[in-house]
Design brief:
Blueprint lengths: L6 H6 L14 E5 L3 E5 L1 H7 L2 H4 L42 H27 L3 H13 L9 H11 L7 H16 L5 H12 L28 H13 L8 H6 L1 E4 L2 E5 L3 H19 L2 H21 L8 H4 L6 H6 L7 H11 L5 E7 L13 H5 L14 E9 L13 E2 L24 E9 L5 H16 L10 H14 L3
Parallel strand pairs: 4-7
Antiparallel strand pairs: 1-2, 3-4, 5-8, 6-8
Helix pairs in contact: 4-5, 4-9, 5-8, 6-12, 7-8, 9-11, 12-15
């Protein structure tokens, strides 16, 4: 090891200080999460493009002719980090632009810290530092409207189950920006930046002679600990008004490379566990909130109906067009007077008026059934309906299968993490849960099945069919509570009051 240091020296260092950045040539940006962020000249060349800012100028053709007669501004700035979550958590209006700057800064802090203490030993150069920082900045460049809803729900539905990822689109967007703006970056740097972005999706993309630890920083495909998570966990918790007891600073301050892998001090085992536990809590309480999912379901239906008219899905084929697509697509549909967009427009109007798809109930899949669980479909619910009730059709029901885990499915993610004892040791090892605490979980995944009625007057029929499905599948009702009678009657009364006799 090039230098040794004690815990007191580490914790006394100012985390916000970057040891190798020359700030005379950097742009200063103040972030409400990390404070002062300094952007280097090369990174600034990417930021100051309309594709990164997504500043749409005079969009051509009919796509937006009925939207704005003036320019519509910003895309990464106009891509909300949490998609439609702001309709439930009003403060969740932060953007991919802020998150990208945050990840850039944390990537910079992480690589500079390793360089300070192990730079000679690890042969970290300015080239390595620059590529890690750029990977952090550009990792989300390929996101579409309303976050993961576009990627995981809309595209598979309208493109016949096609698997498409924002990471792959980020690579295309990077190439497009470099060519379009003649950014002076060598091909080797560009290759490494793109590999660092895609490594969590494709762990085999790295060359055998690479410094593999560099790929653990932005998108860690090895064990899931990366600065991307550090930023969005803290930023999302803050925006939604939730407390966050995960301290990413402690993780960054104590990391060390052993055998080409970023390892963590054994004393921080529970801190790292909080990383995964906090992420799971955010998924349960924010990202997959029952009302958030209801709004997402309605928006996906609206986008699907509008796709034949606006050809939204075709934009993923061409980076030159894709960067023009952002969250303003909702307003485009909503303010259009075109008759062929009426169904989509009506769905968005229902969202605005809080006439949402009605959440009927949910159940958690029993632990012993998780391994062979198959996603529940509307057809499964229809086949369980009571004959004395109104006949349910597939288009009356929406089913959401929510998987919440600690990043490794049914496995414990901490088993794939290497630890070290103290800063003088050069040996890495893994730690079993039961050696730390018997209060830690023994199951690492939840599967929750939720059912929604798209029509208010069918809440009772859908709820009963859902209960019948549970009885038929598991021999018992696994939901915690019955759908409240008050809700069933309320929905029927609302429906009856709107029916014209």
């Amino acid at each position: 090891m090039g230098a040794t240091y004690c815990e007191e020296e580490i914790l006394s260092n100012n985390f916000a200080r970057s040891s190798t950045d020359d700030r005379r040539f950097s742009k200063h940006i103040h972030d409400n999460v990390h404070g002062n962020i300094y952007v280097d000249p090369l990174s600034l060349k990417f930021i100051d493009t309309e594709q990164f800012q997504r500043q749409v100028k005079l969009l051509h053709a009919w796509f937006f002719i009925f939207f704005f007669s003036v320019q519509s501004k910003v895309l990464l700035r106009d891509l909300k980090q949490l998609g439609l979550t702001y309709m439930v958590y009003p403060g969740a209006v932060h953007s991919r632009f802020e998150h990208s700057l945050g990840v850039y800064w944390l990537a910079s802090e992480a690589i500079n810290r390793l360089n300070t203490y192990q730079g000679v030993e690890l042969d970290i150069g300015r080239f390595d530092i620059q590529t890690v920082k750029l990977a952090g900045l550009l990792h989300d460049l390929g996101h579409g409207p309303f976050s993961h809803t576009f990627e995981r729900e809309f595209i598979p539905r309208v493109c016949g189950g096609m698997k498409w990822s924002h990471e792959e689109m980020s690579l295309k967007m990077i190439d497009y920006i470099v060519d379009e703006h003649n950014i002076d970056i060598d091909s080797e740097s560009l290759r490494k930046v793109k590999e660092m972005i895609i490594t969590s999706e494709n762990a085999t993309s790295k060359s055998s002679n690479e410094k593999h630890f560099l790929y653990d920083i932005v998108a860690n495909g090895r064990n899931g600990i990366d600065v991307d998570k550090f930023d969005y966990i803290v930023r999302d918790s803050r925006a939604c008004g939730l407390g966050c007891n995960f301290q990413f600073q402690r993780v960054v301050e104590t990391m060390r490379v052993i055998d080409d892998e970023i390892c963590y001090r054994a004393k921080e085992y529970l801190t790292i566990h909080k990383l995964f536990a906090t992420r799971a809590d955010l998924h349960r309480t924010v990202y997959t909130h029952a009302k958030v999912k209801a709004i997402e379901l309605m928006f996906i239906d609206a986008m699907t109906k509008a796709n034949d008219v606006l050809h939204i899905s075709s934009y993923i084929d061409d980076p030159a067009q894709y960067w023009k697509l952002d969250d303003t697509i909702l307003k485009t549909i909503e303010t259009s007077s075109r008759e062929d967009l009426k169904e989509s427009r009506d769905l968005i109007l229902r969202i605005r008026r809080r006439d949402l798809y009605q959440f009927c109930n949910e159940f958690a899949v029993p632990k012993d059934k998780l391994e062979y669980f198959i996603n529940v479909t509307p057809q499964d619910i229809i086949c369980s309906q009571n004959s004395c009730r109104p006949i349910l059709n597939e288009e009356d029901i929406a089913v959401v299968n929510v998987k919440i885990d600690l990043t490794r499915g049914r496995n414990n993610p901490l088993e794939s993490i290497s630890f070290f004892k103290d800063y003088d040791s050069s040996e890495k090892f893994s730690i079993k849960d039961d050696l730390v605490s018997h209060l830690l979980p023994t199951c690492y995944q939840d599967m929750i099945v939720r059912v929604y009625s798209k029509k208010p007057h069918l809440v009772e029929a859908v709820s009963e069919a859902f209960e019948n499905f549970q009885l038929k599948t598991y021999g018992m009702k696994t939901q915690v509570h019955a759908t409240p009678e008050k809700k069933k009657k309320k929905m029927e009364l609302r429906y009856n009051s709107t029916v014209v006799v």
